[in-house]
C-alpha cells in the first residue's frame, strides 16, 4: 500500500513516495515498466507506465519519489461492479509529526 500519491493535472504523470529502503524502489529500478492498482471514484483502475526513482530525500523520514509517466489507464472492476465504500483509516501516531511529514512529502510530490 502506498501512503502518498499525487496524480498531476497534466493527466500524464503520477508521483508517489516510498521509504528509502523500500524493496519496491529496487524492483522499479530493475524494471521501469509498472502497473499501479488504484481504487477511487467508485471503481478500480490499472495505471500502466514507465517509472523513475529519485535519489534519497532526507526529511523527517528518508524517502524516495517514484515518478510514473502514464501510458494507459483502464477501468478493471468486474462487470457491473462498483466500489460503494471508500477505505477508512486512522492515524495512530503523533498528529503534529504526521502533519509535518505529510506537508514535506506532498511538497516533493507536487514539484
Question: Can you give me a brief rundown of this structure?
Answer:
This protein has 111 residues and is an alpha+beta fold.
**SSE arrangement, N to C:** EEHEEEEH
CATH superfamily: Electron Transport, Fmn-binding Protein, Chain A
Q: Please describe the biggest sheet, giving its number of strands, its sense, and whether it closes into a barrel.
A: 6 strands, antiparallel
Q: How many domains make up the 3D coordinates? A: 1
Helical region count?
Answer: 2
Shape: globular
Beta content comes to: 35-45%
Rounded mean pLDDT is 90
CATH fold field value: Pnp Oxidase, Chain A
Helix share bin: 10-25%
Query: How many strand elements?
Result: 6
Output the CATH class name: Mainly Beta
Q: What's the structural blueprint in terms of helices and strands?
A:
Blueprint: E1 4-7, E2 13-19, H1 23-30, E3 33-40, E4 43-53, E5 57-58, E6 62-75, H2 95-109
Antiparallel strand pairs: 1-2, 2-6, 3-4, 4-6, 5-6
Task: Describe the 3D structure.
The structure is a single chain. This protein has 111 residues and is α+β, with helices and mostly antiparallel strands. The chain has helices spanning 23-30, 95-109, and strands at 4-7, 13-19, 33-40, 43-53, 57-58, 62-75. Strands 1, 2, 3, 4, 5 and 6 form a six-stranded antiparallel beta sheet that branches. It is built from two helices and six strands; from the N terminus they run E-E-H-E-E-E-E-H. The protein has a single domain, classed as Electron Transport, Fmn-binding Protein, Chain A (Pnp Oxidase, Chain A, Roll), CATH 2.30.110.10.
Amino acid at each position: 500500500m502506498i501512503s502518498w500519491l499525487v496524480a498531476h493535472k497534466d493527466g500524464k504523470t503520477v508521483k508517489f513516495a516510498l521509504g528509502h529502503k523500500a524493496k519496491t524502489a529496487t524492483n522499479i529500478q530493475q524494471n521501469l515498466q509498472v502497473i499501479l492498482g488504484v481504487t477511487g471514484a467508485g471503481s478500480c483502475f490499472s495505471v500502466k507506465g514507465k517509472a523513475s526513482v529519485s535519489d534519497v530525500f532526507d526529511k523527517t523520514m528518508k524517502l524516495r519519489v517514484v515518478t510514473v509517466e502514464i501510458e494507459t489507464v483502464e477501468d478493471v472492476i468486474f462487470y457491473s461492479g462498483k466500489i460503494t465504500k471508500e477505505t477508512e483509516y486512522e492515524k495512530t501516531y503523533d498528529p503534529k509529526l504526521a502533519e509535518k511529514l505529510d506537508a514535506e512529502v506532498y511538497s516533493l510530490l507536487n514539484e
